[in-house]
Design a protein that fits this description.
The protein is of the alpha/beta class and 616 residues long. The protein folds into 2 domains: 102 residues; 342 residues, 3 Solenoid (Pectate Lyase C-like). The protein contains 7 helices and 37 strands. Helix 1 runs antiparallel to helix 4 and helix 2 packs antiparallel against helix 3.
Amino acid sequence: MAFPPIGISSYPIRIDPLTNIAPFTYRSGETYLTLLYRLKDYIEELSPQFNQKMGEMIDTLNTGIAGMEQNNASALAAWNNRFDEFIANTAGLIAELNDEAIASLINDPTTDTATALAAYLDTEINQELETWFGAVNPARPPYNVDFSGNEFVQQSPTVIAANTAGMQAALDHGGKIMIPAGFAWVNGNLGIGSYSRVIGAGKGITRFKIAAGTSWNNRVFYFKQGSTRSSIEHLSVDGNIQNRTEAGKMGGIYGTNISVINSTYIKVDSVESVWAAQHCFDVTTPYYGDAGDGAIIPNPSEFVDFVDCYADMHGDDGFTTHGSGHITFTRCRSGGSRKAMEVAYDNGNGFEFDDYSYDITATDCYASGNAHGFEVKAHTNQSAARNVRLIGCVAEYNEVNFSLRHIGHHLAGTPDSLTAKNVQIIGCTSRFPRRVFFGGVDMADGDVPDDQTPAGDTYMAMQIGGYRGVTVNNFHAIGDPTFNYNGAPAIVIHFKAEDVTIDGYHVEGHTTSDWDIYATGGAQPCKNVILANGHHVNSGRGAVSAGGEANIHMSNIKAQRNVVGSPNTGTCYRAYGQKQLTNVTVKSETPWAVNYNISDVLYSSYETPLAANTLL
């Protein structure tokens, strides 16, 4: 049997895609060589995989066949015959291979036999599956998208325009759009409608890049308004913001790489999004509302799931939501905002759940290199994001790793937030809050060395401001003992936050912080704070400070500190106003100069309501 010399591709890409870790290796860890040996001796082991796919198709079609004309059943029978022929051809091809030919796939994938086999398996299997399931391949006629591009050499405007039109035509077909491996230049604004699955060959394998000179406002892909039950999966997009024009820049919902607009039951799975003009991923209404605190804006996106997605080098946020709800993020990663790293402070965040958002869950997600790693917030004249859960998330090397705030509702004389409420932070970890530069060096703004805190910047593990009904469980705040935090607390509860509980926590390494946990008093105090079951280990110069309105309740907290070059000359626990301390202790081997300052009365030991406390 003669085969044309077509380049190596992945086999069988539509059933079990290759990994990016090792060549000729499946996600299961099985190699080409192992599989081909099995296929040579037991081709029937492969057949059930195809039979299962065929069975699923038959089950789906049987409902529609009932009552239809006989020629539809005949067509189905013909498809089954083609399937049997395909299996026989595959079995025959593999049976012709000897051990030496099989080994050549691993030892020298450029041999004629290996090349021919890979080409046959890729083209024949994929063509058959596309036929069976009605899938569209944008690389084939009539769409003819060119996936042979080079990311460093932009193609001609004619080719890019044709790519954009061809890709949009494939998306307009709907159903399953199976995109091959390769690189394509496009102008962007590729709209996905209802009942569509857009599936690439994998992150870093199927790639799209917006052409230089296109408008800042363009997206790469977006879900059209009103779309439902659709997905985009297993591909990479590059917003190429470095080479686009800001003429006519509109902001708002524009300039996002992957945008879900007024759509429902959407899944974004294993998508990489980088160099976005504004956001790498956004779930939003058709416009960013400005209806006031307490309002609900119309046309949300709902029931949207992100799984195993990656964002990096965003102009603003990696992942964000506006006016939308019932959204989940699972195992998603956000690298750094390029603005947060280029300037002393810019509110570019890893995950930002913003104005009017509701019912959001982020599980096992990660953020690094941003102004805020995870931020739950709103602007002044908008309702705050609410009913948010962060579970098992990790943030490191952000200016503030976890942040809750409702801008414009923090200070005395400003109205209390009507909507900033109900946030759960469960099993999360903050590590090394600090500024990070590109490559670990200063950018052109040239403010201070990388091991110092720029003037006006405050680096913290967590800040809670303006929100009420906040519960933090099993939280770890790990600081960098070599970094200068300039006295900033590891955790601050301030700006009229209310009803805050931190239960089960560990603070360590914030050695240049004045306090590990600071619950503020003053003109805009926090209120009703509970701290329980915590450890302070070789961390801030003081463990906890609580203002007079905090109504602090502390229980089962232990502090120890032995930091070279930083003696315990200050106060360990400080509390004013109504307070309750139960089993709040200082390790006897590492006492502070003042173990307890209770409303400016100093104690070496203290517990409420016992009277036998020891004054200094």
